[in-house]
Amino acid sequence: MPINPKYAQDVWKDIGESVQFTVLKFKDLPVAELQEAFTTFVGRYKPIVHSLRIRDGQPNGLPSSLKIAFGLSNHAWDILYPNTAKPKELEDFAGVQGPKYAMPATEGDLFFHIRANNQAVVYEAQEQFMRFLKEITEVVDSTQGFRYFEGRAIIGFIDGTEAPESYEAADYAIIGDEDEDFINGSYAFAQKWRHNMDFWNKMKTEHQEKAIGREKFTDLELEDEDKYHNAHNVASQYEENGEEQKIIRMNVPYSDPASGNTGTYFMGYARHWRVTKGMLQNMVDQSDYLLTFSEILTGQLFFIPSRTTLEAMADGAFS
Ligand code: HEM
């Protein structure tokens, strides 16, 4: 059976104008209580999203821009479905370690990536979800991201150029028939970075360009010999059998400028978790330039079930 993107959640488009990333963990409650509340929530999820899309639709017939991916971690899977086979590559992200830098693993059971052109819709979606989840969860992290000028990362460079374009993106984002039971699902890696913007902003543009590997204004790629050896677009590349591998990246900036809390919420969706993991390992192994002025605050892997799998979960077919 080939992949069918219409059964996948919103894992390859769109990045959105207003973005909410939420990581929740289960409270220390009896497993049966968690299972029951989760099943109720999953049953409510589809009608909530559908209703919001109707409410957000434009009077002139334009469709709603609301896009959502919702998933669960390996830890959550073990609690909710201890007797059910898992997606093949689902595991706890254990962190990655390089000679100088590390990327930590942080807690998380449930994950939401909600985006739309209208912040009110994003708010309403998370608010309605929490009505069904707040009794059983605690917040690990809640971050509001936004689209920056021209789709640039907060460090001023266009972000996403070498990621697949939308016509081919589904093939990189969605699990295929290598895992038939979980086809049209996806592996989402969510990682919150804080940047030392004072350090970065003091760097001359020419040095920033060498650090990223591209020109800042035009976005043209530099010749390899003009890049730093640990330029981000060198260190983050990952190959298998000599072939460069790709994932779908939907990073956006977040910022509270008054307190200086500014960074990038990295969001990667992949058909194969091992590809994202390979990129992360290469970044720490090569001391990616981004790591020299950043602190990594969170990181966890989540499985984003297909719409079909969500329905089976709501029907109690997995328990
Ligand atoms: C969180 C801070 C990050 C920022 C601000 C950032 C920004 C960028 C920018 C500006 C580019 C160049 C344009 C493009 O091709 O998209 C890029 C490329 C890339 N990034 Fe990141 N990135 C971040 C983290 C990561 C992480 C954690 C990964 C891996 C899991 C990653 C994987 C990649 C890849 C694979 C490329 C394309 C390299 C190429 O083939 O040229 N990035 N990133």
Q: How would you describe the overall organization of this protein?
A:
The protein is of the alpha+beta class and 319 residues long. It contains 9 helices and 14 strands. The protein has helices spanning 31-56, 74-80, 119-133, 166-173, 197-202, 205-212, 232-235, 273-285, 307-314, and strands spanning 18-26, 67-72, 96-97, 102-103, 110-116, 137-146, 186-195, 239-240, 243-244, 248-249, 252-256, 261-270, 294-296, 300-304. The strands form 4 sheets. Strands 7, 10, 11, 12, 13 and 14 form a 6-stranded antiparallel beta sheet that branches. A 4-stranded antiparallel beta sheet has the order 2-5-1-6. Helix 1 runs antiparallel to helix 3 and helix 1 (31-56) packs across helix 9 (307-314). The mean pLDDT is 96. The structure holds protoporphyrin IX containing FE (HEM). Protoporphyrin IX containing FE (HEM) binds at residues 153, 155, 157-163, 191, 193, 212, 214, 232-233, 236-237, 249, 251, 264, 266, 268, 276, 279-280, 290.
The distinct bound ligands, ions and cofactors come out as: protoporphyrin IX containing FE
Give start-end ranges of low-pLDDT stretches: none
- Main structural class: alpha+beta
Roughly what is the average pLDDT, rounded to an integer?
A: 96
Q: Helical proportion?
A: 25-40%
Beta percentage is 15-25%
The tally of strands reads 14
Order of helices and strands: EHEHEEEHEHEHHHEEEEEHEEH
Number of H/I helices: 9
Instruction: Give me the Rg, rounded.
Output: 19 Å
Separation, N- and C-terminal Cα atoms: 25 Å
Shape, principal axes of CA atoms: globular
Biggest beta sheet summary: 6 strands, antiparallel
